[in-house]
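#structure-requests
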Amino acid sequence: MRVQIVTVPYRYDEPDEGLGQGPAALIDAGLPQRLREGGLELADPVTARLPDEERSAGSIAVNIGHLGAKTAALVSDARQRGDGVLVLAGDDTATVGVVSGLQQAHGAGVRLGIIWIDAHGDFNTPETSFSGILAGMPLAILAGLAGPLWRGSAGLAAPVPTDRMLVIGVRELDEKEQTLLRSTDVKVIPADEGRKQPEQVTEAIERFAGRCDLLFLHIDLDVLDPSLVPSASTPEPNGWSIREAAAVITAVLGTGRVGAVSIASLNPGAGQRGRRSVESALQLISEALPAWQATAMPEPAV
């Protein structure tokens, strides 16, 4: 199996700033070489960018959607070649484009499941969010609970049913976000449960995968303890170790149904704190991702 790396160097719709520098930092720090040494066959990285002339004035959500359409095209092309897709993104907003690309390659009717590894739920809507941060909304956008312009401009063919969403590693939920989650069929596994009951988490992943034809795995690096990613924009105490996170990622990859993996929220531009965060991200990815090589790959639609 070959893996196509797709970089999306944006935080929201602003390129190459803060978190947007994360994808290039991982490439420059030798991530492709580490993955090849771990046994993965890689295609040369490609980048999703939104040209200035295609930006919509005054609408961040629409611009994120247009960027998502660029990401979707690259993801779809890779999947139609039979490649797995590793998306290195500035922030979590890139995931809408990834799901759009998977739907384009596999068909809108594919039973796509999303496994979301994150310290946060990212299940806010504009009505529930205290901060209004769009990176806290992608999972709700993908569920069809908000953001029709965002979804439409990204080319998302169909929302993902909430019973095909599994959130793991959570340590912080907004009050209204928690209420919204409880009104859906999203399964949430808190970080402590993942730490104390790893066998049960693996069993939950396997049961979830059994209801899906295809999986998309998203990893926000703030799932790690802040001591490991000290430049995190949204740190939460009592996070996972690299070994704990890698074990969960490996379990997801071991289902044999993962078509795409995305990794987001690395800020390398904070001196020593940024360098520490880059090294932790490299260690996590290079420890967990080679497990992908040993699995079957879901076939794209003909």
